[in-house]
Batch of 2 targets.
Target 1
Amino acid sequence: MNYKIAVIPGDGIGPEIVAQAREVLDAAGKKYGFQLDYTELLMGGASIDVYGVPLTDETIEAAKASDAVLMGSIGGDAKTSPWYQLEPSKRPEAGLLKIRKSLNLFANLRPAYLYEELKAACPLRDEIIGDGFDMMIMRELTGGLYFGERRTVEENGVRKAIDTLTYDENEIRRIARRGFEIARKRRKKVTSVDKANVLDSSRLWRAVVEEVAKEYPDVELSHMLVDNCAMQLVRDPAQFDVILTENMFGDILSDEASMVTGSIGMLSSASLNETKFGLYEPSHGSAPDIAGKDIANPIATILSAAMMLRFSLDLDEAADAVERAVKQVLKDGYRTGDIMSEGCTQVGCREMGRLIKERI
Ligand code: NAD
Ligand code: IPM
Ligand code: MN
């Protein structure tokens, strides 16, 4: 069986980590009898350099025509990169937001799981880590502050900036349903995270999530304020099964959760719409500080590729094999610098990719 995969290597470490994910995918294809036909697309800074804009309509169409999109990361150093001399709507990040919106990728799944083998890389104390944790952060991805009206004005010589946070009940309902559906296949617990003590959008969020919860009587729902959640993530991460939250809160909480898994270099993600189609990318950025040095951790991208096999291509066996290979490489003591600990063997990005591929 052949599948059409759009590949967006992006900027910074993007091309390095995507190359390793492709190697691993191809090894899985060989073993499980499928072939991925890749079309490389430009987005972010790489697209600005060629087309002057971070995402062209042709790229969106090519992505839509594929079975799934595999992405690295986009963006550069805001201080030194010429991309940030452009107006905000033409910068790399605008391309990422545009592709999410154009493909209606409203459901962003970010699994934060502590591998037994990575306990030493987790910054929490042993008694907090206990038997580890396994949570799914369900982040709404096409609404909220990211897509609200924004402008900068000057009033009486005073500069003023305005960003607006809007959600309608339909946007909340569809992500909530996704959250409950996923919880049903896990430990049947949803923690909905909001700021309902202050924000109207959060009060609506809470009300709609309560309504949706009635459709899922087998799933336990609780609510948590976002500031408390940020604290609880490092106090007792094992209490969470599915965290259901809006766009900006999910962005921040998922970076925090990633670190308790050992490193942001471990956190994969899938961005889905109502169909089988999805965009798969690590949760981290383009890491300009380590780009081109062959030291980035490719595991988040490789695990995102496994999610692509599972969710968009129905290749569960191959997805399992990729996840097993990652676990095995960690068991065998290989680490990139970000998850390095005593007694382990430090390897670079390419070598980590090769070692995982070898274990498929
Ligand atoms: P970042 O995630 O790129 O990096 C934060 C820190 O984590 C850096 O020290 C970096 O070296 C480290 N890091 C990240 N990924 C790593 C990996 N795989 N292995 C080892 N270390 C890793 O966040 P930032 O520095 O705030 O942002 C850099 C650029 O990336 C910005 O332009 C930002 O807008 C962009 N960004 C893009 C995405 C995306 O494409 N989805 C996500 C986040 C940030
Ligand atoms: C992410 C990133 C993006 C976001 C940025 C680059 C726009 O941080 O995917 O987590 O905030 O969604
Ligand atoms: Mn982020």
Target 2
Amino acid sequence: AWGNPMEIIDRAVRGGYAVGAFNMHNLETTQALVRAAEQANSPVFLQVGRAIVPHRGLRAAYEMTRRVAEESDAELVIHLDHGPLEEVYEAIKLGFHSVMFDGAHLPFEENIKVTRRVVEVAHDFGIPVEAELGKIPDADEQVDWSSYYTDVAQAERFVAETGVDLLAVSVGIVHGVPMSSPQPLDIERIEKIREVTGIPLVLHGASGVPESEIRAALAAGVHKFNADTDLRHAFRAGMEAVWSEGDRQLEEAMAEGRERMIAATVEKMRLYGCADAA
Ligand code: G3H
Ligand code: 13P
Ligand code: ZN
Ligand code: NA
């Protein structure tokens, strides 16, 4: 069943937990996310993101996600992850329930201008918008964190002037799982941004973050966690376990990948607190 994205988030804010948002990559991974939602009795954001879109095209990825999801009783939302402008508009036309416009690479004033326009269009269609301020590096990229973190004063202005529903922040997280020990999260920055913006925050790159920091981020004002890599690794481990026993059918390997991914997703739903929240 289709969920209402902001109704799901508002419930999480009131209940003091966060909702999981996970990326689909093919039929089996989409099924894994939907089954995890069913098993954990949890709402979930099914994300169509940057890996699948060039590979399959936005429409094909959306159609696959919709077909798998519409057969389920779980509370599901199809969300565009890290969309450039044209993709956001295409997603709105296709019927996505929620979109992220990622203007983090734009100069600040330009990010405000473009995001505000996206919000106007999306809200006309009844669709909420997640935006990003500050830059999120890839794992093991050498960066000067001071130029990557979300600035608190900028966040206040950005949210007031754009009217976004959710804000993705850069607070020491990275996309992927770093080989070396991860940068600790700047929990105080999350608290301050939450306070000045007044809207729920999103933590991308939740894979590879210690559980204690996930809990602290949640308490500080994060109500949507994006995780991909940890679940992809679980899927891969399942396939490798089957293939380590000799040559087997792809379906058999993918079925074991799906089982492992379901278990890993349910575990994250419990950690974020959205299990049994449907
Ligand atoms: O549906 C989306 C808006 O109407 C704008 O779309 O800029 O791709 O024409 P467009
Ligand atoms: P991870 O791969 O680090 O979990 O990041 C996922 C993400 O942020 C998707 O938008
Ligand atoms: Zn992300
Ligand atoms: Na990460």
